[in-house]
Amino acid sequence: MIKTAQQPIPHQNELQWRNNALLRAFDFLRPYRKISVATYVAAMIINLLSVVIPQFIRWIVDAGITDRRTDILAWGIAGLLGLTVVRSVLGFLLGHWSEKASQYVSYDLRNAIYKKLAMLSFSYHDYAETGQILSRSLTDVERIRFLTGRAVLRLFQAATLLLATFVALVLMNAELAVLAMLTMPVLGYVAYRFGSIYRPLSLDIQQQEAVLTTVLEQNLRGARIVKAFARENSEIQRFEAENEAWFTLSERAVRVSANNMPLINFIASISTVLIIWYGGMQVINNALTLGELVAFTTYLGQLVGPIRRFGVIIPAIAMASASGERIFEILDAESEVEESPDATDLPAIEGYVRFENVNFTYFGRRQILDDISFEAKPGQVLALLGMTGSGKSTIINLIPRFYDPTSGRIAIDSIDIRDVTLKSLREQIGIVLQETTLFAATIRENIAFGVPEATDEQIIAAAKSAQAHDFITGMADGYDTDVGERGVTLSGGQKQRIAIARALLKNPRILLLDDATSSVDTETEQLIQLALQNLMRGRTSFVVAQRLSTVRMADHIIVLDKGHIAVQGTHRDLLNNSGLYAEIYHRQLR
Amino acid sequence: MGFSIGSASAEMGPRQSLESYSDKVDGQVFNVGIVVRLLAYVRPYWCRMLLALIAMLATTGLTLLVPYLVKIAIDEAIVEADQSRLNLLAVFMLLASLGIYVTSALQDYLLSWVGQRVLADLRADLFTHLQRLSLGYHDKHIVGVTISRVISDVSVINQLLSQGLVTLLGDTLLLGSIVVVMLSLNAQLALITFSIIPVMFLATAVYARRAKVAFRRTRERVAALVGNLAEDLSGIRVIQAFAQERVSQEHFEEVNRANRDVNIDAVTLSFVFLPTVEFLGMLATAIVLWFGGRAATDGDITLGVVVAFLAYVTRFFQPVQELSQLYATMQTAMAGGERVLQLLKTEPEVLDSEDALEMSAIEGRIELRDVGFEYMASLPVLHNVNLEIGAGDTVALVGPTGAGKSTIANLVTRFYDVTSGAVLIDDIDVRTVTQRSLRRQMGLVSQDPFLFAGTIADNIRFGKPDASPEEIEAAARVANVDNFVEMLPDRYDTRILEDGANLSVGQRQLISIARAVLADPRILIMDEATSSVDVVTETLIQEALERLLEDRTAIVIAHRLSTIINADQICVIHNGEIVEKGRHDELLALGGLYETLYERQFVGEPS
User: Quick check: B233 contacting A, CB < 8 Å?
Assistant: First the structure.
């Protein structure tokens, strides 16, 4: 239980996107290039001002204070404030623009992820872990946002400021400038080393945090089982083991960053001391004015902030590239079920369904269906019967193309379902899946899920057919009752009936019921069947059921055995001719 | 399916309205009560905290010392042309910088260490507490919400406790010291410079008020975003089956857009504030230059004082900026702290009594005596239920959905306590023994065949971790798991995907039966254990179970009457009461509800 299910679908182009992840992330800035360019222009002007302002201060100290010129002092200060106002306004615009662009990037990325997820077929979602997808669409997208927004901007600002400061220093005093920049390579090296140690460590921490979350999530979801088997103590032990593993990793990261960040500051401050000492000597020797020295130290003071930020941004960029990989892994995933490029809309169908030599293998490893051929005529009810795991649900899932057959062909009204658009196909099929998923919304919204424009009359009619109307109206809020935490907790049978109503409301030509009434009591089931018998008239229906009372009413029964059709026919035929069917029948009657 | 982060939650799953996701915190930024309770987690590490505090004081002192040394260097060494003094001062400055390196490294390390330690402790406490909480809590709370308490809320608290409090303390201290140093350098100039402070306070107050609203809004929106995504992921198959991708996408884009816009608003707000602080800082610099400059011109103060003032003014505004940034963290930490404490305060509904005994080896007699039960006040689920089950008997509970069958199972396992009456096992009231000793002797196959992530073998041995492979396979044979496991390439080592996506529902039910079988319980409860299993397999399981259950007590809940026909006793439950009781043929002869149910299922229509 500790390990999470592995990702068995390898990505052949793994190396390719590893290199491009950062570039691809920046590609998302393209629609906002105007605003981005403006941001960078603003950043450059701000840097220019940051270089000019100490010159002003120097000038004020030298010309105004040392030379006792009050007018220069006054004008200088006025100029200083003027420049600061410009810098503040630009600072605001810079912040606003870069935030806007990067927020739009994360918005676009999330939409792209969502769109992709909605498109990916069932086999992707069978393997994908919800926790993983959630953390990728939230945390990883945030990291990319930071990268495309503030991180690179800060880096750019710091680099250009460094460059501009260096130029200004050289212009003032080349010797001192070189001296001041002497520590830069060391600083660069320390920052780089810090980043390269910190990155893998922080990835490990993230991974461990994911493990911790999974342990917790599994424990909470299996709370009933944990309690029933009195396993609380061992669960606590397991959690604490993972928790301590997390702490060990965190502690290591803490040590690395507690050592490196102050080190970076220290190296930067060596420059200042050097300048005061060497520059001071030059002032003593009259090779430098006091004002120049003050300006020099001011410049160096300005560099401290950006240099400190290097230490934060470098690991952030490293982490963002990992995030990029994780995000593009979703965006690059290929759907097993693809719409063909020249797919046409499926015209209104009669409901003639035909399976021709259909085989299905799950992820190339497990053969689920073996040479399945049959046909269902419009208006027929076809029942699928067989042992657990014999492939009944798979047959149901192939009709709306949730999966594609490995070989063979499925046709509706003689049209291969791979030649039509998914939407036009699925719109004409009503399905009740084996496991009922309702959304946290009102009962009304849940029933109308497939037909948002449905009228109240239609919704009530569907609920009546599904034998759900009575218990719904029995609730205080009726159809407006919330399903979920703050609403009512529905029993398994009640949920199934809402799911049936949801499928019936679509008024589909083909109706697929995958064990739709397993949690419904016999009496209610019988009522649903009576209602369905009316509804199924003129439609093609596929029914998977365990209870023979459901199967018996079918026009055609297919008995599956380990993925192939053992026997098919009507109830009477099978009772007389099939040992297996007779056995199933009599066992239930026993 | 149904991933629980958003499977059914109003808090997490915003389908219809975006407005109802507020934090429900009364908006206090600094709640002393919460901080004090959380500080209890820091107490075990007070030595380190004290050391960190000392390191911080040293850092602050040294940080303040450097500009002062610069002042002396200018005034007393450079202006006086004293080379040796300059050398000495340079060495001092270097030493001070080295000192800052050491003390700040120490401070960073200690604070982060305590922070991470507290985080780990809090998480462990929460997890342990969650294990103690009874099923009533777990039934009512969405998993995703609880996860966010244990994972995210706790880490914001950590930020507040370790970094936040110390930053608050350190920055306030730094501010105070700078004020003192500036006053002592030149009181007049200092006071003139401080005239900026009221403006600063005003700006901060205006910002703080608006930022509170703006940042709270971003949290609401991101919660809505998470909820929407989690919900749609859990329902993705339904969305595709009903071809509703476009509608869902549009809805997601709407939530996504709202999140984007409030974030831009909030950050824009701080980009108004930060340049304002910057400008005010420069204004202070201008004041120093103007008044200090003129004073220096007049010879009232030295140039060194002006330069030192310039340095102090710059340092003055940095903590102000940091403090206002901290404000946003504090917001979220307080809200998070409140929620975490709330969870820790939640008392389990089912508690071991103080003098609870260990349940000795169970023989298996079960008695429900005048049992009444309600999940929510005044909504009775069971009333006046009396039932006696002999040791080794199999009892079947039948009746319509919602009649109260699962509730009886929940009471026998003591997942819930009875509202009135008593549940007795071997004539011992279940409330007088420890839950652990009671449940260790029971096995449950529940309605929802939940399997943990892991292999099939891991899941079967869940109740008996030290089971040998042979024992696992024996249990698997009883539950007919071996039939399909043999067809899997990795057999018992096959990994089960999230939500058991690679197994059919029936197969999952079989595994959960094997799990209960291996646990070797004295009392076995099967709640619709085979509803998705085919008839042939089911009868095979029944035959195997019959041998197994020969001397054990079993409670079986089923809709399929073939499952229950051979039970020693059948109870028909209707609207929370036992309406009929007896063996199959006795009940048929009675001609009541049972007979109706039976007729419907088997003889309903001519074959």
Answer: yes
A14-331: CATH topology is: ABC transporter transmembrane region fold (1.20.1560)
**A163 to chain B nearest CA, in Å?**
22
Domains of chain B by residue range = 30-344, 353-441+559-607
Q: What pLDDT, in 10s, does the model give residues B14-45?
A: 333 223 333 444 455 567 777 788 888 888 98
| Residue corresponding to tokens 């032990």 | A237
Residues of chain A contacting B561 with CB distance shorter than 8 Å: 522
B571 contacts B581 by C-beta, under 8 angstroms: yes
* Distance between CA atoms of residues B244 and A369, nearest Å: 29
Q: pLDDT band at A245, cuts 50/70/90?
A: very high
Superfamily holding B353-441+559-607: P-loop containing nucleotide triphosphate hydrolases (3.40.50.300)
Residue A487's pLDDT band, with cuts at 50, 70 and 90, is very low
pLDDT tens-place string over residues A62-92? 777 777 777 878 888 888 888 888 988 998 8
- Structure tokens given for B36: 């004090």
CB A442 to CB B81 under 8 A?
no
Q: Which residues contact B225 (CB under 8 A, 6 or more apart)?
A: A110, A138, B255, B256, B259
Cβ-Cβ pairs closer than 8 A, A with B, add up to: 534
Exposed/middle/buried for residue A368 (C-beta within 10 Å: 0-12, 13-18, 19+): buried
Tokens linked to A369: 């269906």
CA distance A534 to A555: 14
Helix boundaries (H) for A70-183: 70-119, 122-127, 130-135, 141-146, 152-172, 174-181
Closest among B506, B495, B499, B509 to A394, alpha carbons compared: B506
Alpha carbons B360 and B379: distance in angstroms, whole number: 35
Cβ-based contacts of A126 with chain B (< 8 Å): 497, 501-502
Strand order in the sheet with B366-374: B380-389, B366-374, B420-425, B428-429
Query: What is the fold of A353-589?
Result: Rossmann fold (3.40.50)
Cα–Cα distance list, B422 to B119, B360, B525 (Å) = 42, 19, 19
Domain boundaries, chain A: 14-331, 353-589
Q: Give B383's contacts (C-beta < 8 A, 6+ positions apart).
A: B372, B576, B577
Q: Are B144 and B5 in contact (CB under 8 A)?
A: yes
Rg of chain B in Å (alpha carbons)? 35
Backbone CA torsion sign across B504, B507, B511, B517: positive
Best CA proximity match to A228, nearest among B7, B90, B525, B401:
B525
Pick left, alpha or beta for residue B286 (phi over 0 → left; psi -120 to 50 → alpha; otherwise beta).
alpha
Q: Please tell me the distance from the alpha carbon of residue A461 to that of residue A449, in angstroms, as a whole number.
A: 15
Across the interface, whether the CB atoms of A118 and B458 are under 8 A apart is answered no
Q: Are A84 and B279 in contact (CB under 8 A)?
A: yes
Structure-token pair, residue A19: 């290199």
